[in-house]
Amino acid sequence: MSKQEIKIITKIIRELSLFLIMHGFKDFSLSTKNTKDTTAFIIEIDHPKESFLDHMIDKISREREMEIETYGWELIGDIDDKTELEILGLLIDTIDVKKKADKTLITLVRNNRYLD
Amino acid sequence: MDFFTKLKKRMLIPLIFVVLFALAFVFDTPTNIYHGYINILKSPSVLISDYIRIGGLGATLFNVATIILFNIIMLRRLGFKMTGPIFAGVLTIAGFSFFGKNIFNTLPIYLGIYLYAKTQKLEFKSFMIVVLFSTGISPIVSFLIFGTTWPLYIGIPIGILVGIFTGFILPAFSAHTIRFHKGYNLYNIGFALGVISMLYAVILHSFNVNLEVGGPTSEVYHTELVIISLLLSTIFLISSFIIDKKVYRSYPPLLKSTGRLVSDFVRDYGRAVTMFNVAIMGYISIALLLLLDLKLNGPVMGGILTVMGFGAFGKHPKNALPVMLGALIGVTVTNYTLDSVGMVIALLFVTAVSPIAGRYGVIIGMIAGFIHIIITPLAYTFQGGFDLYNNGFAAGFVAAIMIPFLEAIKKQDLEEEKA
After folding, report:
1. Which of A15-24, A39-48, B153-162, B229-238 bottoms out in mean pLDDT, i.e. has the lowest?
2. What is the pLDDT along chain A (116 residues), one digit of tens a residue?
3. B200, B386 in Cβ contact below 8 A?
C-alpha cells in the first residue's frame, strides 16, 4: 500500500471516530482490514437510532468521485456538525449494515486507489 | 435523448458557448475579431489586463468562447459529468477569459498537471478540478514571453517551461493548502497559486524585471455587458423552470448549505435548483453593481461569471450577501474607494469566503467580508499579479485567521444517537 493511501485511510479513521463521538457514542470499536486492493472499516456500536443509520447510509452511499478525492481529501477528519461525512462518502465504495443481538455492525469498504 | 435533455445534463454550457460565440460576431467584424484576438494572445495578461480594452468586445467574446469550447471537448473526451465543481470551473475559466486567460497561456499548465498525473500513475481526469482552476496563473506564461524585454527565443521556452512546472507542482500543493483555511475559502487553488505567484514575483524582482504591466480597463461596452450577463442569468432561470415548474420550492434546503468545500450543489440538490441558484447569483451580482452605479468591463464581467459558476459549488444568497455587505461597509468606512477596478471586483470575489457566513452566520460573515476587502490590495502587492485569483489568495488568509478562533469558541453540541 502506498504512503498516500495510508494517509487517506488514517484520515478516514479519524473522521469516523469523530463522527461517532460527536453523535454521543461512548462505547464503540473501529477496526480495519487491509488487503492489497481494499480497505474495510468495521464499526461496532450499540444499536443506534434508525435516523442515524439512514443519515450515515445516505452520506456514504454516494458515488465515488475521484476528482473530489484528489482535490479535497485533506479535509477529511476535520468535520463539524454541519459538514460531517460530506467528503468521506465520496471516498468509500460500499456500506453494509448488519444488526446482531446487542450490537450493530457497519462495514465500509474502500477500493484502494493509490497502489504501489 | 432530446436536445434539451442533453443540454440539461451539461448544465447549459454548450448553449453558453454558442451564445457568446454568436455575440462575438454580432458586436464586431471577423477582421477586427482576428486582429483583436492576436492582440489578446500577445498580451502579457497580468492582473489587471482587460481584454476588452486590448482586443475589443468581439475578440474577447471569441476568446471566451474558444476557451469554453476547448474545455467542453476535453471534458467530453474524458467522459465527465457536469457536476458542481466542474461547472464552476468552466464558468470561472470563461469569466477570467475576459481578463487574463487565453488558449495559449493555459495549455502549458494543463500539460504540467498531465505530466504530474502520469508520474503518479493516476488518471489525468481525477485532477480535473485542479486542472480547471489551475489556469489562474496563466499570466506567468504570457508575461515571460511578452511582458519582459527578453527576445522571443528565450521568452517562449522559459514561459512554457514555467507554465508546465507550475502545473506539475500544483495538484500536491493545492491539496495541502486546503488545510490552511479548512475549506472555508472557495477559491482554494487561487490561494495556492497566490503563494506560487509570490515566489515568481520575488525571483523576477530580484533580477530587476519590471512587473508593472497591467493596464486601464474599458467601460465602453457597459450596456452590452449588462445585457449579456442578464441574458445568461435569464437562460439559467428559464431552464430551471422548464426542468421543474416549482423549482423555488426546492430552494430552501440549498440555502441551508454552509457552502464549505467541497459542496456540490448539482449532486446534493439537483440540476434545476442549482440552475435557479446560478441565475439568482447572477442577478444579485448585476444588481449590486448597478445599484452602486459601477460600470462593467472585462474584469467585472469575469467576476459575475465566476459568482454564477460558484452558484453550483458553494455560493448562494444566504451565505454570499453577508460577506458582500461586509465588503461594502469596508469600502465605505476605510480609505479604500470603488474608483479602483480591483476593489470593484473584490465586491464580487469576496464571496470566496461565503462558507464562513454559511457556517457562522450573518455578523461573522460580514466581518469576514470586511477583513477580505482590506486584505485584497495587499495580497496583490505580495503576489505580483500573476495569480488572477488574487481574491482567492486574500480569502485564504481571511479564513485561516478567523476559522481556528471561531472553531475554538463555538460550542459543540453532542447529540445522543443511541436507540
Report:
1. A15-24
2. 788 889 899 999 998 998 888 888 888 999 999 988 899 999 999 988 888 888 888 888 888 888 888 888 888 887 666 557 778 888 899 999 999 888 999 999 999 887 66
3. yes
Query: Could you report the per-residue pLDDT of B298-341, keeping only the tens digit for each?
Result: 999 999 999 999 999 999 999 999 999 999 999 999 999 998 89
Q: Are B354 and B311 spatial neighbours (Cβ–Cβ below 8 Å)?
A: no
Chain A residues at the B interface, defined by Cβ less than 8 Å, are 21-25, 45-52, 62, 65-75, 78, 80-83, 86-87, 90, 113-114
| Residues pairing with A32 in the sheet | A41
Average pLDDT of span B57-67: 96
Specify the DSSP element, H or E, that contains A109: strand A103-111
CA dihedral defined by B133, B135, B137, B139, rounded to 10 degrees? -150
Tell me, yes or no, whether B197 lies in a domain.
yes
Nearest-CA distance A108 → chain B (Å)? 19
Q: Could you tell me if residue B140 is inside a domain?
A: yes
pTM value is: 0.91
- Alpha-carbon dihedral of residues B49, B206, B397, A3, nearest 10 degrees? 110
Please state the domain count of chain B: 1
Closest among B205, B206, B180 to B192, alpha carbons compared: B180
Question: So what's the pLDDT on residue B211?
Answer: 81
- Would you call the peptide bond into B48 cis, given omega within 30 degrees of 0 as the criterion? yes
Q: Is the dihedral of CA B98, B99, B105, B107 positive or negative?
A: negative
**ipTM exceeds 0.95:** no
**pLDDT of res. A73:** 85
The per-residue b/e assignment along A16-41, b for 16 or more CB within 10 angstroms, e otherwise, is: bebbbebbebeebeeeeeeeeeebeb
In a domain, B354, yes or no: no
Measured between CA atoms, the residue of chain A closest to residue B259 is A83
Considering chain B, what is the average pLDDT of its residues?
A: 93
Measured between CB atoms, which of A22, A68, A86 is closest to B414?
Answer: A22
Distance from CA of B126 to the nearest CA of A (A): 4
For residue B415, the 8-state DSSP code is: -
Which residue, chain included where needed, has cell 479564513? B399
Per-residue CA distances from B326 to B225, B302, B370 (Å) = 26, 21, 5
- Domain residue limits, chain A: 3-111
Contact call for residues A84 and A90 (beta carbons, < 8 A): no
Q: Which domain holds residue B80?
A: 3-206
Instruction: Give the A:B interface size as CB pairs under 8 Å.
Output: 99
B335 falls within a domain: no
Chain B residue whose CA is closest to A50: B419
Shortest CA distance to B111 belongs to which of B88, B134, B91, B129? B134
pLDDT at B57: 95
A80·B412 Cβ contact <8 A: yes
Cβ within 8 Å, pair A70-B417: no
Domain with residues A3-111, CATH architecture: 2-Layer Sandwich (3.30)
